[in-house]
């Protein structure tokens, strides 16, 4: 990749800055989204780690760099293993083909960056 790997810490920091700016002009939407996030990610029949693996797989499929950054950070905090992330990426590639393989590679880079 020209210019080296993406810096997922910088990507998530930049998005957080942008969200902070949006908060000044659309706080109700952000509050609603935060509530949706909290409700969707609360332990239930599926635990939070499983839900984060699903969210990361969708981030790969949708080719969303910030989603990849945020969900790899969350999975690291939840104690996900290399094997869990690797298997999830395998399913993402299976379902999404070549484009998902490219983002699976980026996701592995993000995963490794969260371990630093």
Any key phrases for this structure?
CMD-like, 81% helix, mainly alpha, AhpD-like, globular, peroxiredoxin activity, 0% strand, Carboxymuconolactone decarboxylase family protein, 116 residues
Overview of the molecule:
81% of the residues lie in helices and 0% in strands. It is mainly alpha-helical and 116 residues long. It has a single domain (8-114), classed as AhpD-like (Up-down Bundle), CATH 1.20.1290.10. The mean pLDDT is 94.
CATH architecture: Up-down Bundle
Largest sheet: none
Enter the CATH topology name.
AhpD-like
CATH superfamily, by name, is AhpD-like
The whole-number mean of residue pLDDT values reads 94
Gross morphology: globular
Rg: 15 Å
Strand residue percentage: under 5%
Question: Structural class, please?
Answer: mainly alpha
Low-pLDDT windows of residues: none
**Fraction of residues in helices?**
over 70%
Q: How many E-type strands?
A: 0
> What order do the helices and strands follow?
HHHH
Q: List the domain count as a whole number.
A: 1
Number of helical segments with 4 or more residues: 4
Q: What is the end-to-end distance?
A: 21 Å
Organism: Henriciella barbarensis
Protein name: Carboxymuconolactone decarboxylase family protein
Domain Carboxymuconolactone decarboxylase-like: 28-106
InterPro entries: AhpD-like (IPR029032), AhpD_core (IPR004675), CMD-like (IPR003779)
């Amino acid at each position: 990749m020209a210019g080296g790997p993406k810096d997922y810490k910088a990507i998530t920091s930049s998005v957080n800055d942008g969200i902070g700016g949006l908060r000044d002009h659309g706080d109700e939407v952000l509050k609603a989204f935060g509530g949706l996030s909290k409700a969707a990610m609360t332990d239930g029949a599926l635990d939070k780690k499983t839900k984060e693996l699903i969210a990361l797989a969708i981030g790969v499929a949708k080719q969303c760099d910030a989603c990849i950054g945020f969900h790899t950070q969350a999975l690291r905090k939840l104690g996900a293993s290399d094997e869990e992330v690797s298997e999830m990426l395998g399913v993402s590639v299976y379902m999404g083909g070549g484009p998902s393989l490219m983002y699976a590679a980026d996701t592995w880079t993000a995963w490794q960056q969260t371990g630093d």
